[in-house]
Amino acid sequence: MTNSNTIRSSIFLLTLGFISQSAFSQRGEIESQTYEIVKEKSIEFAPANRVFDKVQPVKGETGQKKVNYQIIDPQIDIASPKLTPSVGVSSDEKERQDQPDVLNNYIKLGGGNYGRFLGDVFVGARPAEDLVFTTQLKHLSAANGPVDGKNSANAGTNFKLGGKYIQSKYKVEAGVDYDRKNYYFYGYKPQPEGAIVNRDSIRQTINQFGFNLGFENTDASVAVDYAVRTSLSTLRDRYNASELDWGTKLNASVPISESFYALLDADAFVSQRVDRLTYHRNLFRVKPTFKYVSDMFSITAGLNAVNETDSELNINKTKAYPVLNIDVSPFAGLHVFAGANGDIVRNTLKSMLSENQWLGPNVLIANTEKTLELSGGVKGETTEGFNYEGKVSYTTYRNFYNFNNSLADTSKFSILYDTGKTKVLTISGQAGYSFNELFKTSLKVNFYDYAVGVLEEAWHRPDLTLNWFNALSISKKLFITSDFYLQRGIKAKNFQSGVVTKLPVIADLNFKIDYLLTRNFSAFVTLNNVLGKKYQRYQYYPQQGLNFIGGLSFSF
Question: Cβ of 31: how many Cβ atoms within 10 Å?
């Protein structure tokens, strides 16, 4: 907390956005991602160097780089356990919204095949030196889809409003957001020639509203370091399902000595879900730990105590899990790590829909217990711009969830829980390389082996995933990004016929080209699913083939 935190903001904005829908997108189309090239101008803000995670990180010479891409690992993390990846968010993008300046604001318009339309407006304001406001309105839609034209159309609209007030001793931030998705359950059985499907009967609309508020201590003279964040979200769909979710998180750290810290993480979640029945679902977590840090290693040890309740499932239990993480750095740039952890993974209707939007009404929502995870690996980074990580983990679960087409209606999905013990072996490796501001590449591979308890298979879960991302600056005006996704080993079952199907390998290649026309205008062209494979991430839901979108971006 003693050092000033310099943040780079742009003198020009290039929206290298919209590069890909991951192969695992739930809308059956390519979602946008945003990249920015951030240069030159620096703005001083109050420091916010937390001590919650005092492990010495692997450090590169990022301060000397004009372009600083950060690749977010695909979140096919069975420890979570989620399937939907989020790839390629620039670290500079996160900082940009803190630092509105000349040309940070933009308007984007674009269109393409499948009747696609993109509109995106971002405006930031800084009425005072320590106060920042940002707002964004974005709409992305496709008038037609991969099946029966308008019967697989989709549209999404998102509005965000945020603000930060930063002082030398504290930081306050708040935000509201609204998200609306409209799409159709087009995974129905093939219809006889001339038959007309009632679009209104297969339509789904999800409206989400959220509010968040956070307070963070940045006063170096105060021994106790802490941050408190609370958020409230609501969700309602077209089938009269709704969810109200309120969560509050506390992170605190107290230095006992120069190298020894007492840490406390505490969470409280109160939620109500209304469907055919009304569920009151709560979860409370307290995780006290102690952390010792030296130049050679760090060790964190403690206990994770979790209480969960569910009024309809008649659940009220409290369990404790170990917390043990060791990180050894025999020399600069190399880390060897190992851990033993357990937790209760909180599942909500919102989290499930974000992973698989094809859920039917009245699906069962229950938490997943991660009884024990044993993990270990090695990671490192060199001053030449190369970084790597290899990790192996073995995890046991209760209530490990899977998605599969429901028995009553195969165009909609149910959530199946393995009430026995599920064992998952995960082997992952990743490597990345960056050459100044000219080139960035990152490759990650994950292998999964599932040993289910009661269920027949781990339905719709891949046994191999791969993601390869590249960003290339050919000149000061031309930028190209590409990403390649692969998933293999997904199995699905039609419970009406009893047929088990191994879905074809998913391979999705995408390109994005941006060209700076003038100081204010840039043009972009995006090619998605270049291989043209109408792959199925979920059975009976083929994705769009080769699709594109082009447009202009005006920065001001």
Answer: 16
